[in-house]
Amino acid sequence: MTDVTTVLCGTGVALVTPFDANGQIDFAALHKLLAFTAEGVDYWVVNGTTGESAVLLKGEQKKLLAFVKENNPKNLPIVWGMGGNHTQELIAQIKDTDLSGVAAILSVSPYYNKPSQEGIYRHYVAVADASPVPVLLYNVPSRTGSNVTGATTVRLAAHPNIIGTKDASGDFEQYTYIAKNAPDGFLLISGDDMLTVPLISIGGKGVISVLANAFPVTFAQMTRLALQGNFADAAQLMYGFADINSLLYKEGNPTGIKYVLSRLGICEPHLRLPNVLPSEKLCRQLDEILALLMKTTQLTSSTV
Prior knowledge:
Layout: H1 4-7, E1 10-14, H2 27-38, E2 43-46, H3 58-70, E3 78-81, H4 87-95, E4 104-108, H5 117-130, E5 135-139, H6 141-144, H7 150-157, E6 162-167, H8 172-181, E7 187-190, H9 196-201, E8 206-209, H10 216-227, H11 231-248, H12 255-263, H13 280-294, H14 297-300
Parallel strand pairs: 1-2, 1-8, 2-3, 3-4, 4-5, 5-6, 6-7, 7-8
Helix pairs in contact: 4-5, 5-7, 7-8, 10-11, 11-13, 12-13
């Protein structure tokens, strides 16, 4: 395994992509978000689901990546989202993207096509063969319509350019299989914020988090405590996030987290269709939970 596996342990934040009222990327707000999250997290994940990659034009994606590279004073590792259900087109995009300064790509399993496990395996081998940087698998069955099984994940882990998986299946039997059978150094990363601590307890190496956009210091501390084996204190921090986490996805992602960030003064809550602004009911619920969180000592240190 390459050295990148050591720097991608801990907390990665799945960064939102701020937009202005006209629907354009708000680079000033993005600069603020980068500075804010850099105070806590171990690495940035850019152009993922939470970053609304599905509604970014290719030219916008290139500008986004260039901006993040240029505004990284702490030299945090950057993971770039690149996935798709057209293998050859994805390979062409990889070849057309300047991945210098990128630690790894995070590549979602092919969606909509619902390929067999053999098809998923061959897709990822083709991507890993073409990528000049290491590849993290991304398994999110609720979005793709198919699961990358534990057996397929372990099979792919043998590829020298595939260094880990962000698994959002929520299947602990699958997680246990991967932790037990993957080679040493293979990164098993939580794709669900509230499963971070229990996943680390069975061999997980960290998380790619949505909550860390708004609570980078505290969320990273929770992950760090778990990695140190202090599960009691990590769990206490995790409990503090339980109520707000359950609200974030009620009307889609990143609808909830962008609204929270707007209340913290980081960026506006604007989204691109087909996502829309949260309902008044959800805003009230988030405001109530956020007000309570602001009163708790374990979360105030990570807010503005």
